């Protein structure tokens, strides 16, 4: 696919736009959204805007790291942006500094140092433990339930609370006219059958959670948003200008379609009347309504600020013409209003090659979809395609668990993007893993990461970091040459010489550690350790003085042991990981989180929500059948429209080839007599979205790959 070295004309106009107006950019998939945002920031820096007064708001921490790295690389130095990251983190910075006095008065206690933030995994653990107190065999209401039934109820309610706590807080705050009064668990979001019977349980856990935060003087992400808005909204205009607005010259917002109403109000509080907001997004990729986001946010912004200037990026640099054409057809039925309708005549297009026809894999056989995907991937590999160029994408995480495990058993290693979001990943954890894998296999990535870690810890100049980051090929040999010559004697300041000496000392110790590691590789590949054995292995091999600066290494060891447990849980104990495989898989996740690129020997699995912003040469989108995609609980026109947008996101991740998969093998109980219940296939239909696209066995515009044995595809045609 075509890559961008210089901005195209549409991007250039946006980058250099200089009128004193708020600017909105509607950017289709693969249109260079991030590239344009970065070039806009670089343009501002070249014009003399102080980076400390540029606010960059991203949806994820990963996104801001990518933006900062690319800007630093372009300027060959580290730029210190005063306020950048997720909106939660920016609000936290203001609460700790500019608004500290007001926050302390509101809370009634002093805030020493940083605010203590509870992370998502800790919230989940808290809720899980509280639910165990409520739902257990000792409770008379559950004595008749089996242990499996109790566990399932706990899991359903824990999943509801995981998303619902934050959304209840935010929506309650807005609905109650910005009141901080804590109400009950007012709205249930899960569609799981019978969940509404447990309203009182959800209320109790929610209140216990709030009490826990208050007693421990901790905050969750919603608190940061709410407290910031509450305090700023009540400030005198002059005081707000002094404390907040004067700190910022330019505001850039990424993934605008994922913002909720309160977040938009906060962006406006930061801006005041300065008309300095620049936002980028795609309403066709708005798929976070469960977090309060709404695609009409573009029209809402335009209605409240008619003078705002809107642009649209339409050239797709990612996908083939075949993929772009099908994606456009899918969205033809989406209604458009306001500014979106005004811009609707500007359609997405690409100058890329025509490409292969989109394939439709259809099967109603047991295990048919798994076999077809496996054989297709096997064929791609025979043509020299690396596994990391392939992604298997699903609407729900549960859709791929069995598939992931079967692939492992068949020798296809894989990582799951959603799994990576459900594990705590402290940097000490990364370092310890890389240290051990270096000892075991002299792994080049591990070596480079440890050197980079030291440079970042010492706040080294950017050019030292760049020299280490640029190492490729035989990295250990290059490190030896680089450090033995003091980086070619290019850097001679006292600070640089001190840091280079620390790198040399680290390198000497790392070589000793690798030389002294005596466990045979075959033993690591053969041994499947228990939790206790694995923990003992970690304790035995992490006593090096290289690790002294990590502080409490026991926390990092505990995190790695927890990873082993979650890996086994995710595989449902159907895959047995050797010591070597545990580290190999863990390192694959670390590579992905650090470089945003999957190891070449690992296949990508992801939900649609977890792979936004990603792209792959070959993409499989699973379970395109009714009640799975669109998902069962999507009933209203708005809910179906969001499901359609989710499919659009999945389809537009593909660069070269796209495979849409309809696994129509479903068993349903059918009463055929009064005396016996028999099971047979029946009732399922392929997704209505495929019907909208005109998919059928005679469609010459698609590659129809059928493995049906119950009849023709017409048997499975949806009515709606």
Number of structural units classed as domains: 4
Q: Which class of the largest domain in CATH terms?
A: Alpha Beta
Tell me the CATH topology of the largest domain.
Rossmann fold
| Regions with little confidence, pLDDT below 50 for 5+ residues | 669-681
CATH architecture of the largest domain: 3-Layer(aba) Sandwich
The overall average pLDDT, rounded, is 90
How far the N terminus sits from the C terminus, by CA atoms, comes to 36 Å
Query: Radius of gyration in whole Å, from Cα?
Result: 27 Å
Number of strands: 17
Number of helices: 28
Largest sheet: 7 strands, parallel
Q: Numbering strands along the chain, what is their spatial order in the largest sheet?
A: 11-12-10-13-14-9-17
Helix content: 40-55%
